Structure formats: structure tokens, C-alpha cells
Amino acid sequence: MDTRYIITSTAAAVIALGMNAGLAPAKADALDDIMERGSMIVAIDPTFAPFEYTDSEGNIIGYDPELLEAIAEDWGVEIDYQVMAFSGVIPGLIAGSFDFTATALNITAERAQKIDFTIPITSTVNAILTTKGNANVTNSNINDLSGNRCAVKQTTQPEQMMQSMNEELSAAGMDEVELLSFDTVEQTIAALVDGRVDCVVDDIVVLHKAMASRPDIEMEIVGEIGTKAVIGWGTNKDDPKLNAALNDALKKLKASGKMGELQEKHFGFRIDNLPEENFIPEG
Amino acid sequence: MFNLDLFYESVPILASAAIVTVELTVCSVILSLLFGTISVMLQLSKIPGGYWLSRTYVSIMRGTPLLVQLFVVFFGLPLLGIKGQAFLAAAVAIGLNSGAYTTEILRAAVQNVPEGQIEAARAMGMSTRQIWFRVILPQAFVVSLPALTSEFTIVLKSTPLASVVAVTELTYAGVVIQARAFSAVEIFLPIAVGYVLIALSFTQVSRWLERRFRLLHT
């Protein structure tokens, strides 16, 4: 008899605890947590070369990890990666499941309402990739893309950009670009190769890398689309100290020339004049 | 076309991810059995409110997608001050989800235990707790083995969802390699074989248990 009452009341207590978000302990700034723990818990989705990906041993490499390693060394802490699918990164950051994310995030006004961004670590522009000689897609003008099929990675900035361009197209009485959303870059490339779509919209750096890794397929970038965007990392809005500390560390890497070196190594070119303030685009 | 080098270099990474898949499945299965047993006992014994607590649990878990439950548990844990416990969150979420189905499987079996046996046990002076643990549950588990095995292979195949809450199990490990190598067959073929082998070993354990207990009970 007793055992059963214990079980029931424990179950009830667990459920009550789970539902009562108000019980949450007062949270210190994640920077204090990192220093106390001696390690930073960093979310990363290593499926986004050259920003973050893995080598043949499974180690996480790329532009973002190398910047992060320099910072961790400077702070004297370890990096504890939380490797996760991209769709979990921003929700997890908001919920505080980890300290911050070093996955390359396009800095957008919409995201800036929910999370804080570090200063930009690179800038980018989207582009249109198609197979060589595709008659349907010959340039990146949105009016000419109207009515074609395009592959995008789901929940990413290129997808959102194409969706808002679609709204403009239908407002102007033209056919929308039919968007097919995929989980990863190589699924979008596979869709292009299979002829399921006419083009792929993604970051120009990502597209260059994808082209280089599939030399068996003749592809070409027909042009840039949309406005230039800046890329940074994300921190929780409750952690202003961490955000400031990361910005200081990134500025230091920029001033020492280390950031430029890493850009040259991973992208093949240096990106100058990255803004340090007023970099959140207007909604 | 089949890139043997990629295949060879992927196998060790996939093998260690397969261990995560097995661990996650086993932990989820244990939790599922625990939650299912507690829930079926609450439902069928005369504890006040137990019936409704159990029915509500089953309805919520069966009526919401596992992905949503994973998000709720994983993003709910930091509210309790727990950070970075991806594996725990995934095992609890999958265990809670599967526990609802285990409840229903066990309920059917428990209700099939002849009333006469329970009356006989009571006549022998067994307490309610003794009747549950010595008469009802042992028989219910043996009868439910085939249905439970089938439920637990479904648990195995729902583990890839855990990648959104930062558990690098077999499938996501494949996605990560694929993102670097841009080819699929060399990676997803061994992954498929891996799942079949894991599922087969589960059914083998179940067969062994069935043979063992059928012998004891006949």
C-alpha cells in the first residue's frame, strides 16, 4: 500500500515540477557558468561547410570552430560541443539548453528579436546555382525565376528570403517560385542533379564548396540574389556579459589579423569592413 | 561509383554512433517499461485518481508527436537548471512516449488474467501488492512479449529524432558525414544494415525470453 502511495505522489510531484516553469532558479550570466565550469557548452550543426563540418575522423572543423578554438584558448576553457540538427539550435538557445551557438547564423531582424548576435564574423550573399546549360535559369533576376522550381534548406535565411520574394511576385500578379525545402545542402544539390528542381538558392560560399565537391556534375552560379547579409554567432538575451565578452574576443582576433587568415584559409578570400555596430538589418 | 575509401573511413564513426543508438534505445525501453507498469497499475488498481492520471498520460503521449515531446522535455530541462543533458532528455522523452503504448499493451494482458486466479490468490491471503507482482504482472509480461518487442523496434526507429536535441545517434552521424562527402549510398547502406542488426538482436532476446518463460509456465 505504502509503496503505491509513494509512487503516485512522486509521479504527481514530477509532473507538477515539469509544468511549473515559475520554479526556475534565478539564472546567472552564462559567462559566469563557463568560467566556473571551465568549459563552454556550444551548439553546432556541423553540416555546413566551410563554416562548420567534420573531417574523416569525425572532428569538428571549419571557420567557426577555428575562431572558437582561439577564443577558448584565450579564456583558458574547454569547448564542449552540443552537436545538433540546425532546427534545434535557435529554440535551444532561447531555452538555455547550452551557453551559446557558434553555428554560422545569418543576422536577421526577425531573429534579433529573440536572440542576441555577436558582431559579424563574415558577410555573405545568396546566389543561384544551376546545372550548366539549363535553359530555364539563365540569370538570378527574380522575375526570370518566376514559375521555376528551387531547392532551399529549410528554416534557413535563403528560404525566408525566397518566401518574401514570392509574396512580392504574387502581389505583382506573377507566378511564384516553387520552393522545395530540404534538410541539408547536399540534398538540395541531389535534387538539382536529379532534375527535381531547376536551381538551388543558398549562400555563395556554400554553393562554391558544393560545386567543388561534386566535380562530376557540371554546375554554374548564374548570379547573386537578394541583399548582402552579415553572419554572426548567437547568444541568449539573458547573457549580455557573455555577448560582450565574445565581441571583445572577436575584435581582438580581427585586430591581430587572425580572423582574416582564417577567412583566407576557409573561404579563399578576406572579407574587409565588417561592421561592428548597427549591423542588425531593419525588419 | 561506390566509394570504398569513404565507406571504410565512415564505418568506425558510424559504429560509435550505433552504440549511442543502442544505448538510447535500451534506456528508453527501460523507462518505457517502468512508466508503462506504473501507469497500468495506477489505471487498474483502486487508487483514487489513478485511473484518470493514467488515462490522461496515455492520451497526451499518444496524441502529440514525439518530436514535440522531445522539444518540450529538452527545452524544459533548463527551466529546472539542467543544461546540456541531451541524452537524458531524449531517453526520458522517448521513454515517456513509448510508456503510453506499453501501458495499453500491458492493460490488455492484465485484463486477460482470469478473475479466478486473483480470487484464489486473495483466498490464500496474498496482499494486493503480492497479487500484482506475483500473479498478474509476471503473466502479463510473458503474454505481452511479442507486442512489446514490436513496440521496442518502433522505439529503435524513433531514435533519429533525438538529433534535434543534440544526440548524435546513427542517422545524424550519417547526415554529418554526408554533408562533408556529398555522397549517400556509402553511408546510408551501412546505416540501414546497422539498424537491421540492432533490431534483429532485440527480437533474438525476445525469442529467448519467450522460450524460457513458456517453459516455466507450461
How many distinct helices of chain B? 8
The CATH superfamily name of chain B is MetI-like
Which oligomeric state applies?
heterodimer
Identify the CATH architecture of chain B: Orthogonal Bundle
Silhouette of chain B = elongated
Q: For the CA atoms, what is the radius of gyration of chain A? A: 22 Å
**How many domains of chain A, as an integer?**
2
Task: Please give a structural write-up.
- The complex is a heterodimer of chains A (283) and B (218).
- Chain A is of the alpha/beta class and 283 residues long.
- Chain A folds into 2 domains: 27-123 and 229-267, Periplasmic binding protein-like II (D-Maltodextrin-Binding Protein, domain 2, 3-Layer(aba) Sandwich), CATH 3.40.190.10; 124-227, 3-Layer(aba) Sandwich (D-Maltodextrin-Binding Protein, domain 2), CATH 3.40.190.
- Helix content of chain A is 40%, strand content 24%.
- In chain A, strands 1, 4, 5, 6, 7, 8, 9, 10 and 11 form a 9-stranded mixed beta sheet that branches.
- In chain A, β8 (149-153), α7 (157-171) and β9 form a beta-alpha-beta unit.
- In chain A, α3 crosses α10 (240-255).
- The model of chain A is unreliable at 15-26 (pLDDT under 50).
- Chain B has 218 residues and is mainly alpha-helical.
- Chain B has one domain (4-217): MetI-like fold (Orthogonal Bundle), CATH 1.10.3720.
- Chain B has helices at residues 4-44, 50-63, 66-76, 86-111, 115-123, 128-158, 170-181, 185-217.
- In chain B, α2 crosses α4 (86-111), α6 runs antiparallel to α8 (185-217) and α7 (170-181) runs antiparallel to α8.
- The termini of chain B are far apart.
Key terms:
heterodimer; A: 283 residues; alpha/beta; D-Maltodextrin-Binding Protein, domain 2; nine-stranded mixed beta sheet; two-stranded antiparallel ribbon; globular; B: 218 residues; mainly alpha; MetI-like fold; 8 helices; 0% strand; elongated
